[in-house]
Amino acid sequence: MNIALQKALSLLVLMAIGLLLKPKIKSKEQADGLKTIILSLALPATIFIALLKTEVRIELISLPVLALIFNVLLFGLSHVLLPLMGIARGTPEFRSLLLMIPSLAPGLSCFPILAEYQGDQAVAWAALGDLGNKVFVLILLYPLAMHWYYRSFPSENVSTSAKVKDLLLALLREPVNLVLVAALICLGMGWQMTHLPEFVQDVILKVGAVMTPLVLLFIGISVQPRWSELRMIGGILVLRSGLTFLISGLFLSFVPHLSPAAAILAVVFPQSAVSFWPFAHIAAVNVLEGEKRSKTSIFNSGLALNFIALSLPFSTLMILLICTIGVPATQPISLGFAGIALLALALLPPILRRIRLPKLEKDVEMAVENQ
Question: pTM for this one?
Fold first, then answer.
């Protein structure tokens, strides 16, 4: 069996094990304990390792910049198109999906397949691009989530400067952000993982190694799929894939002389599954909501988890398909047709339902009047 396929299947099996463990997790506190270990220990260690293992070279600085531009562009497009999918602005579902859709988790879905089909060089390029994605999901999305929180809990007794101070304190209290600052300080001093004492490296690597299995088990334990929600998530994943094909096709049309490996990277990297990190921000806001005892939620954490769970197999299959097709899958015209087809597949059903519903209601009213 293909090594990349084996790795992809192993990730799905870990989620399946989590589903099987669901009956053993009898209380919300048990699941929250696992989530705390992930958000406060395993996730910060993974970020620290990823940053300190990355060799940033000035000639490759365009890769994280391009990834960050992609994140921002997909965020803007999602803000415009989600209402067409029937997700009303200002709802917990809209805010949750707006955080999740533009985020990327290439380590879970993209890196293993790239390593098998394109080699270590492509993975190194993807890792550099992921730095831009990290800036987006860790530094830009968290203040956005907190902005929504403070807007939902306005207080006449709290000044704007006090709210900014509270936001900064909340940023500093998050282990992920503390580790991010520490890693950036180390990089600024020219330190990488090899410059740390060996016992410190060993501890960090061992803690970081549990990140992927813990996340996948937690998703399997916590996911609560409902048919109506699964149908909506499937449509949004198709929409997201279509948008990324169009963006990749547009980029390759402006930069036509890339090597085959770089062109394939430009197509498969944006197709990565959604990241777990925006869910970390959602979880942090949920904790603050619990303290306020709010009756209305800012985010729909269940939808966010289900979205992560379904995006992993979807993205893995898409990346495998692209890498199997190879260079023909990087032609801008092919990407344009694929993107338009997927957008039509995602947008037409909800648009038609919205058109038919008023007509159906009118027919029912007329039938009642005739009786």
Answer: 0.77
